[in-house]
Amino acid sequence: MARPRTVFVCQQCSAQHAKWLGRCTECGAWESVVEETQRAVVPAAGSRTSLAVGAARGGAPQRLGDVAHEQRDRTGSGLIELDRVLGGGLVRGSVTLLGGDPGIGKSTIALQIGGTLAQAGARVLYVSGEESPEQLKLRADRLGTGLEVTVLPETCLEEILAVADRLEPQLIVVDSIQTVHSRELTSAAGSVAQVRECAASLTTHAKATGRSTLLIGHVTREGSIAGPRVLEHVVDTVLYFEGDPGSGLRLLRGVKNRFGPTNEVGVFEMGEAGLSDVANPSEILLAERPRGVPGSAVLPTVEGTRPLLVEVQALASRSVLAMPRRTTLGLDSNRTAVLSAIVDRRAGLRLFEHDLFVSVAGGVRVQEPAADLAILAAIVSSARDVPVPPDAVFFGEVGLAGEVRAVRHAETRLKEAAKLGFARAFLPEITARRIEPPAGLRLVGIPAVGDLCAALADSGVS
Ligand SMILES: Nc1ncnc2c1ncn2[C@@H]1O[C@H](COP(=O)(O)OP(=O)(O)OP(=O)(O)O)[C@@H](O)[C@H]1O
Ligand SMILES: [Mg+2]
């Protein structure tokens, strides 16, 4: 008989502690440790609640070269951009975790996928722990898809699995995993133990039955999927939905994929009829770019294999604080602080007298170091109050010594810039020397930060 016990579990990293702590000693997160009463579940052989999840089943050892090639059975989701991120469609028996901010469109995309599969003749079970069937029907009416989907308003894991065994759907959507609880555990729905156990059971179920499963997950204030870290390890694919809730543009990023590329990005537009594919995201991202305004620079970024032109904006305003502010949106704040120190030191801009606000327009998040040169161009332009040339793009990594370093995918970035009519590219000098530019694009090689300031001064930013 399982005996209940009290444990103190960190909601961030799942570390267990003997007593309550204000700060997790494992990951350093504050106020993340919560008390949980759980029954020590001893998995019986073949038990569905076993934590030993994954596609690996018992079998004889064999030479890797003799393993027969398994043909992946994929189903198109009806959204080209989503299929790109997944690597060609939903894999049979795979488990996909979809996270994103509240209201970003997680239920919408799930219903659209379910609708497409159901129209193609598949059985789709949509388990809704958050919305009533009436709310889902309203959404399906608005989207014009999903009416063939079977809705199950249920939060009990054992009930969900029983219904799934009866209906034998090809796709199970669980909206959301945080609402599901297992009767086997005494802790509350949404707790670390519950989320971990329910996700593990649903994964085991998916692997055993070949039913593709889509788990929708809430995200924390820090932007990671709420619940234990192990959740991301258990599933096959992790997708994050991002975008500025104010704009219709949504980005779907694959951060983990056992069956396809990672870091691939799909771009959608949210409208009355749901999410639609966007084939020309750069044009949309730059549509509202102000011309002739200081502090705006265009960056050709590469997400996965896809080039995207985004606008980096900076505002340097005179500070009255002893320690001026450095605020960023969509960029790494530490990186931006380092870059402002570099430009201060290497190019003599007195940025320590300024508050600095730097962001990427359109709610896009850019993490790659190739953004450095564009961030610096925007900062220099704002600090000097002179716009950068409107026909220019900027990319390159900047080192602490002020040197501009080569980055990957230079050709892809330049091709996208040329396609959108840009005439100049400021890039690392080493890259400019070895690359043949696309027609209509002039390359301006920048060896170091000081040279960027000089090149901008030559073209108007004095
Ligand atoms: N009538 C409408 N016209 C256009 N867009 C709409 C309409 N109704 C809802 N939306 C869009 O759908 C979004 C909500 O989508 P959805 O409910 O799928 O989000 P969610 O990520 O599942 O949210 P939650 O975290 O609350 O479950 C809204 O933010 C809005 O952008
Ligand atoms: Mg929802």
Task: Let me know the average pLDDT.
Answer: 87
Uncertain regions: pLDDT < 50 for 5+ in a row? 40-54
How many separate structural domains?
3
Spatial strand arrangement across the major sheet: 8-7-9-10-6-11-12-13-14
Total helical elements: 12
Q: What is the correct CATH architecture of the largest domain?
A: 3-Layer(aba) Sandwich
How would a crystallographer describe the biggest sheet? 9 strands, mixed
CATH topology of the largest domain: Rossmann fold
Beta-strand content estimate: 25-35%
- Total strands: the figure is 23
Report the principal-axis shape: globular
Q: How would you describe this structure to a colleague?
A:
It is a single chain. The protein is α/β, with parallel strands linked by helices and 462 residues long. α8 crosses α9. Helix content is 27%, strand content 26%. The chain has 12 helices and 23 strands. A hairpin with a 2-residue loop joins β13 and β14. It binds adenosine-5'-triphosphate and magnesium ion.
